[in-house]
Amino acid sequence: MVESRVIFITGAGSGIGFDTACRFIKTGATVIACDRDVLGLQKLEQFSQREGKIVEILPLDLLDVPSFNLAEDAVRKYGHLDVLVNCAGICSGTPLDQITIEEWDRTYAVNVKGPFFLTIRLLPFLKAGNQPTIINISSMAGFTGGIKSNPAYSSSKAALTCMTKNLAKFCAPFGIRVNEVSPGTARTAMVENWLDENEIQKFILQIPMGRLAEADDISRVIVFLASKDAGFITGQTIHVNGGMYIP
Ligand SMILES: NC(=O)c1ccc[n+]([C@@H]2O[C@H](COP(=O)([O-])OP(=O)(O)OC[C@H]3O[C@@H](n4cnc5c(N)ncnc54)[C@H](O)[C@@H]3O)[C@@H](O)[C@H]2O)c1
């Protein structure tokens, strides 16, 4: 049952986060949709209007940690938070020897520092939640080193995986489960901005199930992890990659 639950999703303006938000909105959950992309959030708002549901949109940049009080304010209204999905992330195909200090810092700020401090700020509300849970979106690249080997991205995602484990241990005594979904390669704006169709086809040849993931392959697993059925799962990674990486 996800009805009447309060769900906070970062990266809700596009791709996996957008699809996850749509899925929760359809169930009647209260969704606080956060992204720096206001246009994407407006599209989500239009979706919820078509469904006859309400979504609360929260434009926020994860680079701006001091602005996280806006996230607290948005959740405080409900008095509790049941599900936090840390989905926003950035990736680039910058070759290893061309990564600048600025790109390195920005990648870590969005993929690791932002999710960590947002989680800490929202933890008091999760402690008051109903079967509360946190779901981070990591990456196959954090396990394999990445295909195009951008160490800023892959190591930031490995850090997020480690953070998931830390948080799971820290949060368990409060009844808060913390897990992550690790996508392989999914057909979203992130990948389409980075790989052309020719490169995508080369990727597909390496995927045993013969296709890229779609956003909903990932969002369905996020919804499962948020459900009662996943009630004794914590500190885990669910790999969703069509068999491309099998630990
Ligand atoms: N698409 C893939 O193949 C793939 C593979 C592995 C992991 N992932 C991870 O899945 C997550 C979602 O990616 P996606 O594929 O849906 O990409 P996407 O680019 O479609 O969506 C990412 C969203 O994050 C938002 N975002 C980026 N920087 C932000 C910031 N500073 N503040 C607030 N919001 C910000 C963007 O505006 C965008 O709406 C990411 O964490 C990504 O690393 C994706």
CATH architecture group name: 3-Layer(aba) Sandwich
Number of distinct helices = 9
Radius of gyration: 17 Å
Tell me the name of the CATH class.
Alpha Beta
CATH topology: Rossmann fold
How does the overall form come out from the CA principal axes?
globular
What key attributes describe this structure?
247 residues, Rossmann fold, 7 strands, binds nicotinamide-adenine-dinucleotide
Describe the 3D structure.
The chain is α/β, with parallel strands linked by helices. The protein has one domain (6-237): Rossmann fold, CATH 3.40.50.720. The chain is 45% helix and 15% strand. It has 9 helices and 7 strands, in the order βαβαβαβαβααβαααβ. It has helices at 15-27, 38-50, 69-76, 101-127, 141-144, 151-171, 189-192, 197-205, 215-226; strands at 6-10, 30-35, 55-59, 83-86, 133-137, 177-183, 237-240. It has a 7-stranded parallel beta sheet with strand order 3-2-1-4-5-6-7, sandwiched between helices. Strand 4 (83-86), helix 4 and strand 5 (133-137) form a beta-alpha-beta unit. Helix 1 crosses helix 9, helix 3 packs parallel to helix 4 and helix 4 runs parallel beside helix 6. It starts with 5 loop residues before the first strand and ends in a 7-residue tail after the last strand. 44% of the residues are buried. It binds nicotinamide-adenine-dinucleotide (NAD). Residues 10-11, 13-17, 35-37, 40, 61-63, 87-91, 110, 137, 139, 183, 185-186, 188-191 line the site of nicotinamide-adenine-dinucleotide.
